[in-house]
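User: Predict the complex with flavin-adenine dinucleotide.
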Amino acid sequence: MGFFMSHGAKNCVMTTDTRDIIIVGGGTAGCFAAATAAQEGLDVAILERKSEDEGGHIACGDAIKGKSTFPDVIDLDYLREESFTNENIQRAHFINPKGDNHDIPFQDEAGSVIDRKRYGEVLLEEADREGADIHYNTVVTDVIQNGRVTGVTAKRNGDTIEYEADVVIDAAGALSLLQDKVDFEGTRYDTNVDYSQFCSAYREVIETDQPVEYDDAIVFKPTDELGYLWYFPRTDREINAGLGFQMNKPPMPLVDVLKRDLEDRPEFENARVKNKLGAAVPTRRPYDSAVAPGFMSVGDAAGHVNPTTGGGIPGAAKAGHWAAEVAADAITEENFSESALWEYNHRVQTDFGKRFAAMDLYNIFGSAHEVDELTDIVTALPAEMLVDLMGTKGETSLGLIEKLKTTLVTAFETRGHWGTLREGYQVSQLASELKSVYNQYPSTPSEFETWQAKRDELMDRVYETTGADPKY
Ligand SMILES: Cc1cc2nc3c(=O)[nH]c(=O)nc-3n(C[C@H](O)[C@H](O)[C@H](O)COP(=O)(O)OP(=O)(O)OC[C@H]3O[C@@H](n4cnc5c(N)ncnc54)[C@H](O)[C@@H]3O)c2cc1C
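Assistant: Here is the predicted structure with flavin-adenine dinucleotide placed in the model:
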């Protein structure tokens, strides 16, 4: 597949390769986009800077909810058989340095911890099986643009390759280089992006001598700065242990902090570190718009990560799938404008986008308080209330509000923190309101500025309520 042309001197060949869709990055978002596009009958190639051996090797905590998290465009049974090493995660266990630990059972399906490298390999295999081409060792260095993005320039083994395409999908992960290169002037693409809206994270895969007791749990522990340490059991003897910190705080020596914590835990005595890796992960709301003429960003490259947990695999998979579907329609219509690609923004924002934007308010709330104080509050509140308040829903039920009011009046331990608790309650109400605003995300770009003004007015109320510095 593809159309090739070569010219130039022996050691510096310039090749042109023409496709319907070019996808930069062979991670979760890129592979789901490629599999979807290939199923639509399009000529699609993934450009991946890593070698084939290293493909799929990505820094991750390896925890996901389950197979149902993924669009059904690849063989999900094969993915599960090959890479879901622990499918028996029944609870989240929160270690509280100041008091009783909390155990929160999973309500619906069990969670999973995966062998992340094998998972990544299977996604690449599946994209290939569906008919996408994968060009490894191919580092994208620039975009080709002329009023709209029409391709990218890449380097492979010293050669320069120009890839031309109707649509370029940017699946290059956090802090994607492509966004520095595209001229977004005159588009609504979100350029209000700053490193302080990211988290720096690091993890080790560790093999213990004896089985751990928590092979049915994902374990969390707060760090001194706003962030958490995790222990996620891939098996009862292979643990993914890691941590992260918000980049709006002073840098944390991640490797040392993890090392100290491991030394304090008896199960890691004589344990062997099998793999170490770190990376940045966005802990911000999804980009307001992730499309420009001929260009779409998906996954980490568009902030599609739950900003309180750092979980980005499900968002990346869905976004990749939706972007390719919308791109396929645009190709049929031969219209690659911002308007033609806008439907993708609408799908993201009215689905997980609204939930992640709402969860982000708790990060903003957290940034205005000392971790110590937040831990005191967590210590005082019953576990179920915390789940409801800061759970994955990003909204507060009326029942919880009633319970919270009662707690405010009765809980002796929360005395001295009532002002902060009231603030938390107000933030939860604003989070519900924010979700309603995101439900009204415009279906065309022309109404975008009016929508954005309404959302920003709500964000001003969040900053006023919490006293936090504006994040955006
Ligand atoms: C330490 C850590 C722990 C995490 N834990 C979890 C977890 O437990 N659960 C969860 O759901 N999520 C977790 N996440 C987040 C999750 O890993 C990401 O959200 C997810 O991998 C995003 O997928 P993606 O396809 O958008 O990007 P990526 O997986 O980052 O893929 C991007 C790909 O693009 C390639 N690339 C980049 N630049 C170029 C270029 N110029 N040219 C060619 N190729 C390029 C990269 O090599 C890479 O293969 C964690 C992240 C980190 C850093």
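The mean pLDDT is 89.
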